[in-house]
Design goal:
The protein is of the alpha+beta class. It has six helices and eight strands.
């Protein structure tokens, strides 16, 4: 890695889980063509680790969003976290030390810190057992009775209630991305 570069993780919202499809080879090429280095993808769900001299994560996100729109005709929100930000999100999990099943832990990454009033109004749907903690631009989620598959406390629910773009990753993916960004 060249001097002055930082490693980042770009998290694309809603890729390869619905109708928005993108090959990871195309995603790597797009990010490389933007001038970033050491570009790697993780899984097929729009996770990209790369190194860049650009320090503004919002600018990095906009660049990837523009390339996706211009070259592939895709309107995909992109959230970017630096290696230290992702490491802090993992280290700051209030639930990781009391849950052995990584499918019951998730992190919702937000495009911006949510308004305090909106966080205060955020509630778990009736009949569900979900714990959550909002820390800056992340929401740590814990599903003690099961995984994310049957809940109404979804990414779309969080976006609607908080008025902010979000993308959610399971704990295994968050930890793997942290490790890739730190490597």
């Amino acid at each position: 890695m060249a001097d002055g570069t930082t490693r980042y993780v770009a998290l694309l919202r809603g890729v390869n889980v619905g109708t928005t499809r993108i090959a990871m080879a195309d995603l790597r090429r797009l990010v490389t063509d933007l001038g970033h280095e050491e570009v790697k993808t993780y899984l097929q769900s729009g996770n990209v680790v790369f190194a860049s001299t650009t320090k503004d994560t919002a600018k990095l996100a906009r660049g990837i969003e523009s390339a996706l729109a211009d070259e592939l005709g895709l309107d995909v929100p992109v959230l970017v976290r630096s290696d230290p930000e992702l490491a802090a999100a993992v280290e700051g999990s209030p639930y990781a030390d009391r849950q052995d099943d990584p499918t019951r832990l998730l992190v919702a990454f937000l495009a911006a810190p949510p308004a305090t009033a909106r966080v205060a109004e955020l509630t778990v749907p009736a009949g569900e057992n979900v714990e959550y903690t909002v820390v800056g631009r992340e929401i740590h989620l814990h599903f003690p009775d099961g995984g994310y598959g049957r809940t109404k406390f979804t990414n779309a629910y969080l976006e609607k209630k908080l008025g902010i773009v979000a993308t959610t990753r399971n704990w295994k993916s968050v930890c793997a991305l942290r490790d890739l960004a730190a490597a």
